[in-house]
Design goal:
By secondary structure, the protein is an alpha/beta fold. The protein has 12 helices and 8 strands. Strands 1, 2, 3, 6, 7 and 8 form a 6-stranded parallel β-sheet that branches. α2 runs parallel beside α3, α2 packs parallel to α9 and α8 runs parallel beside α11. It is globular and about 50 Å long.
Length: about 325
């Protein structure tokens, strides 16, 4: 009888711990958005483009992550390769993903006139819009290069009206973790065949994912009083192709399930106005502060580790 009681007590304790762990892990949702298709780095290398995108898509599918890829169509126009490069975009649609407009050549709105920037958006949709039409997809999104949305109110508002007239919704982001910095360092390590360094960078990258999600989750609670459906920005590169599985595991441990961009935008938070005017490409969780009558302050946003920054800045 004593042993039976001890066994019952142990089961109760284990069940209690299970409930406690469940209570400590909030139910969260995040949409993956991936910029600079069909490849962010080394876009002149068709075979690498195919390899990276296949691995990236295989990992997204294996982890049940719906995603949207934002295209720079200039990267399709290589002599004798346009069909092959367009087929890389078809791979995304065939995998059940979606595509969006990231401008033709990824210019900086801070450095162009309004008419020049509008031309970039028009030139950036020629192939992508047709590919979407072939699949019966008509939801169109525009992602600003560098997330620069205008240095004057007039430029910002005029371009938004232009997008609306062409049937586009803006694709904001709330979480990013400087993956382009890590990706550059990772690429340099790979070029030197330094696998030890490459793995150190990748491990640091995954740890920094937790750091940045923790920061933006807290930012959401402080600004809006709850944790919103997050929109995560990364890029189409080798590092992410090698890391999606690890990223998914960490996000699942944080309580995340994976949703589409369209589902994320149904969160009431995205009805807040983006009143930011300036040269920075900051998270919408910072931008909304202005419209809510609060001070814009992103000085406490974490930076990538020093050793990664040192590699990134090195020639």
């Amino acid at each position: 009888m004593k042993k039976q009681w001890q066994f019952f007590t142990l089961l109760c304790a284990l069940f209690g711990n299970y409930l406690l762990l469940g209570a400590q892990t909030p139910r969260r949702e995040v949409a993956f958005t991936i910029d600079d298709l069909p490849l962010a780095q080394d876009a002149n290398d068709l075979e690498k483009m195919r390899k990276v995108n296949k691995k990236l898509l295989d990992s997204l599918i294996a982890n049940h992550i719906p995603a949207i890829g934002f295209v720079n169509e200039r990267k399709l126009y290589f002599k004798g390769q346009m069909d092959a490069r367009t087929d890389v975009l078809r791979m995304w649609l065939d995998a059940g993903m979606s595509l969006g407009n990231h401008s033709f050549s990824h210019p900086d709105f801070n450095k162009l006139s309004l008419s020049q920037y509008e031309d970039e958006a028009i030139r950036g949709e020629v192939v992508t819009r047709e590919l979407m039409r072939e699949k019966g997809l008509n939801k169109l999104y525009f992602r600003y290069p560098y997330n620069h949305t205008g240095t004057t109110k007039e430029a910002r508002d005029s371009f938004q009206e232009f997008l609306k007239s062409r049937g586009y919704a803006i694709a904001p982001f709330t979480v990013e973790h400087e993956d382009y910095i890590f990706a550059d360092a990772y690429s340099k390590a790979k070029q030197k065949n330094d696998e030890v360094l490459a793995q150190r960078i990748r491990a640091s990258y995954l740890e920094f994912l937790d750091t940045m999600f923790n920061y933006f989750e807290r930012r959401s609670r402080e600004l809006l009083g709850y944790e919103i459906k997050q929109i995560f920005l990364i890029h189409d590169n080798e590092l992410n192709a090698d890391s999606i599985g690890g990223m998914a595991e960490r996000l699942k441990r944080r309580g995340y399930s994976f949703i589409t961009l369209e589902e994320a935008l149904r969160d009431q938070a995205y009805q807040n106005k983006d009143e930011y005017v300036g040269g920075l490409g900051i998270s919408w969780l910072h931008r909304w502060a202005i419209g809510l009558g609060k001070k814009l302050d992103n000085r406490d946003e974490p930076d990538a580790p020093k050793f990664v920054m040192d590699i990134y800045r090195a020639n």
